[in-house]
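Continuing from the previous page...

OK, I double-checked the sequence for Drug resistance transporter, EmrB/QacA subfamily against my notes and this is the correct one:
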Amino acid sequence: MSENENQQTEQANTDYNKWVIMIVLLSGAFVAILNQTLLATALPKIAADLKLDYSVAQWLQSIFMLINGIMIPITAFLIGHFTTRRLFMSALGSFAIGTIICSIAPNFSILMVGRIFQAAAAGIIMPLMQTILFLTFPRNKRGTAMGMFGLVIAFAPAIGPTLSGWMVEHFPWRSLFYLILPIIVIDIFVAYFVLRNVTKRYFPKLDSLSILLSTFGFGGLLYGFSVAGGDKGWANTNVYISMAIGAIALTWFIVRQLKLEEPILEFRVFKYKIFTLTTILGMVVFLAMIGSMVILPLYMQDMLGFTAFESGLALLPGAATMGLMNPVTGRLFDKFGAKWLSIIGLTVLVVTTFMFTTLTVETTFTYIAVLNAVRMLGIAMVMMPVTTAGLNELPLDIISHGTAMNNTMRQVAGAVGTALMVTVMSNTVIPSEGLEGAVHGVNMSFIFAGVFAFIGLILTFFIKHRKPQSES
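Thanks. Re-ran it with the corrected sequence; updated structure tokens here:
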């Protein structure tokens, strides 16, 4: 079924069909990413309704990130084993089942089951979508396609807290899932008619030990960093145990993949220097972005007295700027390549990050919103262009491994960045100075992020300056 069907499908794809397919993929990705942050400001309501401690309710967020991070490395194997249509439809189906379970869950345990279904689906959808884009669009159009993907990455996580804050003020918390379900159902219906099989099936062998090691490796590290970045900090014994298990399992996993003829996740993608460089750059930028999305709401709510809804609102201009600019920077990448876009973008990121190191107890809402918007403009000039430049270096037969690796590294960077920035903020607070001392911790966390951004800026000068060539 496969090879002949794939070739016929690719020949049948017109530009119109490609963009219709992309809209279907974007809709699935949007819901998947939105769902990751949608419960952020709804957790207090859920905790009160189900009579939970807030620390227990927080697991509804943590489990999503954990399962998502565990599934992503396995997607390259799944892409090689199943047709594009079957895998995407199955992922959306899993997401729909999870959403239904969450909407009717009578207790916390059932709600967690629903979140696990959703997270597993999200972990498949993201790298699968990138793989489809790279196989569907020619090299000289991939920047534009990835720019549209970047629009989703920007908007979804930022509007999640704001949207959920508004929804739970006016409706029961279950309405969040009622809102998502129709979008998924419509997407499944449309995907059934328009989605084509573009990925090549080569039926890799299932190595159960590799999947087990991947689960404990990435799961252990993500769990350790997420707990460290929460209210328990590094003092929690679970942090060290999970990170030790994660490090050992991940090391074993990597060594095993390098020895297998058909690895679950192909680490040899790092033989391609530009892919390695751009993956590191993407991690640095994602670390800076996700870390500040955690720090700024903490600062605004705990030190400036804003509500959760208002702090989410402050991040919205940045999300809008990044979302609107991603398609633009995608087109610029198709014309000029990634190097100068990245240099300009990281320069903006470095400057604006250091401007966040002078916050006070009198800093205004407008200053935070505007500066964050400019900062997100810089991130938009880097994130998708470097991702596209790196994946463009890979042969088509290992693109699925490249997208899985790219998404996995970004998940790890987000967890690490959040944990480290929260740790720096907590450890540099000056208790004797009251609120000013607490703000000092926030400023120091942005100095930490600024140093990482500056390292990223230096690395951009090693990107080869080349214009993407068109391919037939």
